[in-house]
Design goal:
Layout lengths: L1 H26 L12 H20 L13 H54 L6 H16 L3 E8 L4 E8 L3 H7 L8 H8 L3 E3 L7 H5 L6 E9 L2 E10 L7 H55 L5 H7 L8 E8 L2 E7 L8 H13 L3 E8 L5 E11 L5 E8 L7 H23 L4 H13 L9 H15 L5 E8 L2 E7 L10 E3 L3 H9 L3 E4 H9 L4 H11 L7 E9 L2 E10 L7 H30 L11 E5 L3 H13 L3 E5 L2 H11 L3 E5 L8 E3 L4 E3 L3 H11 L4 E7 L6 H6 L2 E7 L3 H8 L9
Helix pairs in contact: 1-2, 2-3, 3-4, 3-8, 8-12, 8-17, 8-18, 11-17, 12-13, 12-17, 19-20
Amino acid sequence: MNMSGSFIPYAYPVLILLLSLFFIYRLKRGDIDRPDRQGTGFIYAGLILCFFFAVATLIQQWPGYEELFLEWVYPVLEIAMFSVLALGLIFFVIGIALHFSAWGDRLGETENYLEKLQLLEHVQYQCRQPYPTVELLDRVLALTLKALDEDTGAVFLFVPQEEQFNLVSARGLTDEEKELLRHYPHGRNIITEAIEKRTALVTADFRSFGGKAQLALTKFRTLAVFPLVSGKSRLGALVLFSPGENRYTEDFLIFLAPLVGWLSEKLEVARLSRDLRQSIMKLENSSAESVAVFRKLERITDTLAGSSNASDFAAGCIGLVEATEAWLLGLEQGRLKFYGGTTSPESLTDRFKSALVDALAKGKTVVLNQEETRGQGQSQVSRSSVLMPTGTAQDALLLVRKGGPMVLSENSLKILAIFAALAGMIIRGEKEQAISRTRRQGFDSVTQSLRFPINGADFEDNLKRFVKHIAGVNSPSAIVVLYRREANNLVGIYATLDTPAVNELSLVLGEGGSGRAAALKIPDAAFGHAGVSRHLMPLNEENLSALRTLLGERQTPVFMGDYPVLIDDQSGYLITVFDFEESPGGDPEKHQLLAVMIGLYNLRLEIHSIRQAKAKLPPVSMTFQERKIMTVADQPVISDLLSSMCRSLGYDVLVAAEGNEGLALFEKNHPGVVVIDLATAASSGEVETSDLAHRGLGILEMSARMKEISADVTIIGLAGWGISLDQERLRRAGIEHILRKPFRLEQLAELLDNPRYFPKK
């Protein structure tokens, strides 16, 4: 008994030390603020106090302990030891209780998170088909309300053109309430505030709805607004209504966050796809319009090569900017004169003719609208007209459209300017009653200029041949110089007169008449010796010296014209014409002819550029055979979402549900990037490849095998947040990047936007 009694005091500290080591081992991970560390301080404090009690008990067994203190001290020590033991046990019990309570809270959070994922996967699965936007929102709203046991909700979409939110879907609201909610106010309100803060908001104050919209919410006490945003795009908002107070808590808002994020990305993908299709259609329409106008120009110039009849030319202009009538007209001694048209001038009212006189005197492009009053006193445009000056005298081309106003784009104005310049030639021919040899040659030259090649590989050589053709339009003594634009300089590269002096020309953009024409991207000309001298005067001494060498001992040119060649709406080249002999038809007519020829050349370059841009765009189906991505995921929700995101970014997507199928598709198609959901289960069947058959192929095995087949492939792994990954195993399997779920479209685009994956050809 004595041995047993003496052994117990030694056992106390040993047991407490072992218990302390056990708890230290179990609680050593994590920060003290984490849920699984709550109560740790109480546990450690309790164990330390118990250890002090055990040490004190051990000290009592030492020989001579009874003689260490006065007699009255021993009862006090006993009370102190008992208090230390009691306090230690209390701390220990409190710590254990707090620790298990924290684990209970964490279990509740985990269950809440699983419920969020289940709701998201259910909605994604039910909405996996490519529904129209309104039908998609209606289905999502119905599924969400049913899952949350809610009755009333609505979805508003932002309309950029109107700068407001429109009601597109609603549940639990009467038809009258829906109609009232359609009058949602402009400006700042609860939805715009939620979008600016990019967070869900709860309110019981409905004043921001205002007016009729506020009347629709009289039976509700609170509402929750979930903004639908993606990047900088404001897409809309999901709104839930409740007749009770304090229905929507912070946990409720957090619970719906994943669903709202998924819906925002779904709407953004649909918007981007729609915008791309509209861009492609717009480009196709622009290309078709330009080609049609180009063919019309070709037919007209072919016809005009042997005729100068103003009425025939006017008839050829029908259809331009939807015109139904056309005239060539001008001012003669302040009076209106018609040279020819598609109908009799008698059909025009005196008031309209008076407006034409004022417009011709100004010498600028003018659009005239004639209104008429219909029933109930409403006015509308019955005829619209555009008056384009020809650039000589006070003459112009008049186009009239019956019914509706004319809409003139920048491209339309360019085309009309070319037709107006041709009309000016016809008018001058009408004035002289015959076409001179120069004019015939001019029309022949215009027709020939339409057939000059403009292919990209030999562009500069073809342009030099075009410059030679231009020289033939002028007198035999004329000199034509070609400049190339380099940064802000115009550098001489070619001249019809074989001399190295052309290489010494280097004009600053904006310097002299030539530099000004290139900077403004419009033709410019100077007539007469004095006019040309003034045109050249601003040039620096080096350029003037080079020009004197180029022009030789001849007198100052009587004509100088500068004509920019536009590439992608920039002055890529400049053609300058120096002529020493006056033209039989007059130098202004020569300038007009050259402007038409080079204007046609620029128009053909623009059409060529549009065709090249169209060729580089993806078709409406948005598939790019040379930009292949393969996705591997066994969950349909993840597979559908991932493939949709990749297609919206312009990639051709191959889809596999497990490792065997993925390896077979990879060996057959060799995509540049493979995106794998690391949670995909191992295969259960076989896959036949060129050299072996794999059974039960796992994701990492599949990845490693792909790297063996093609070392250049980039493999991206998808993993959920908080999941621990063995980085070394992933590296050996060839997985280069990890994308954590849920991820945004911008994150995937940034990861795929690497020229190493899809090098440009």
